[in-house]
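Reopening this one. Same input as before:
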Amino acid sequence: METALVITPDVYGDIRGSLYEIINPRLMEFIPEIEGSICLSYFSKSKKNVTRGLHYQVSKTQGKLVTAVSGLVFDVIVDMRSGSATFGQYATVELNDDSKELLWIPPGFAHGFQCLSDECILSYLCTGPYSPEHERCVIWSDQELSIPWPNKETPIISEKDQLGVCFKKAEYF
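Same output, byte for byte:
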């Protein structure tokens, strides 16, 4: 699979609440390489205006299946694969706990998001382990990419992410 996908899961709900599957046989039809390859699962919790990324790993790449467990995020991916027809292009999607949509981010894409609600929790299922020595970061505010972040004025950014490089200076695949 070389393309990012937004997947709407089946949601089963009643007066008690709801249930939805993240990994199921139907998903394997859309993303066959994900079957048996999930080796890392984690959650990130962020406050409003927290902006994370744009993170990716070189050499030890990861595919990521991301969903908003709670809250609303402006999610961004950037194609870092130099031989790709979409190299250097970005795509955005809003993920929220109402739609329960899943975003499949193939290996070779940088990922970041901005929390738009008071708080958000994202779930990540990853196809490869986290490798700090292979992690890279493209600066969220890169002028060449011109990503239309909802809050450009007062984002909350980690020290590590403030050290991200511009796209032109980033390592590619």
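So the earlier flakiness isn't reproducible anymore. For the record, The chain has a mean pLDDT of 92.
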